[in-house]
Amino acid sequence: MFEVAIVPLSMREPLRRVHAIRKSLAKYGTERLVLLHATSGRTDRADQELSAYAESLERYATEQPRAAGGPSGDGGTLPHPSDADRTRQSSEEASEETSVAVSAERLPALETHVTTGAPATAIVRSPRECGASFICIPWKRKSWLQRTLIGSTTKDVVRMADVPVLVLKGYRRALSSQETTEARVVYATDFHEVDAVVLPFFSEGGLAVSELHILHVGERAPDPIAEQNRIATVIAGLNRLAREAVVPKVERITWSGNPKRAIPRYGRLVNADLVIVGKADTAGGVGAILGSTAEAVAYAHRISVLVVPRSFSPHRFDRPHERTYST
User: What is the domain-level CATH number for residue 14?
Assistant: First the structure.
């Protein structure tokens, strides 16, 4: 599921931030990372700038072992390829200096792709154009007023995408500490088609999952007998999924309540590294409810969230590699 990732860029991002994203995706088993830029202007110029950015990012990665141990301790920051003045980093970015070097050979290979159109629409269209497995959106919190007035590209992508969307949070930690290679994952299930997509992922050798929590959240039934029957059905479904999951430790949990609030709360309770939720593809009825739950969890959760559409079929957009940068 995580072989080929798309990461949208404005090309104004500091190199160390994108390097942190790249390093975090290596933990998911990503082999190819497509840097995507959507433009409303000339694509030839944008393609040149994005290619230069990718080359600088590759040089940045190879400089890390030397820069991490240098006397200046500046983390080997390279100038932005299009504007040297952007080398000045904020105090928050300066705190992200690398202390553990990871060789470039272990990082996903870089590719570039320039497209046109509104950001959300271009991002959603891009997996078909470059054969990506999923879209990775680095999380950037907006205020309530910003979301109300100008909306959120992340929320639009989560709602419209027909491939999994990883809303990546906490990726800066990849630069400042040696993270464990194993992850604690919460999978929130409603016993629908997404199960057939998500469960094989745990045996594909991508993200090493040491602990899987299979969670079902539902509203209580109106009477005790109906509630007892509901719980029995849920437990049977959880047991079935636990048998199919190839993970050293599997926990089965059923909660009653509102999924929009309960799923994030449980993720925080168990200190999860990743929460996986399904997204229905229908526009109304139950589909609208499930879709809004996926959006709400992705937006509210401080932990990385993977939203998987029910209709997703892995490898359906596979195509030959495009431009690749390697050292």
Answer: 3.40.50.620
pLDDT tens digit string along 235-253?
A: 999 999 999 888 889 999 9
Domain check: are 137 and 18 in the same one? yes
Q: Name residue, tokens 């994108």.
A: 18
* The total number of structural domains that make up the chain: 2
Confidence of residue 321 (pLDDT cuts 50, 70, 90): very low
Range of the domain at 211: 176-309
Cβ atoms < 10 Å from Cβ of 119: 18
Mutual angle of helices 15-27 and 43-68, in 10-degree steps: 80
pLDDT at 113: 95
Clarify whether residues 156 and 182 are in a common domain.
no
**Per-residue pLDDT for 82 more than 80?**
no
Residue 255 lies in a domain: yes
Task: Report the distance separating Cα 150 and Cα 23, nearest Å.
Answer: 31
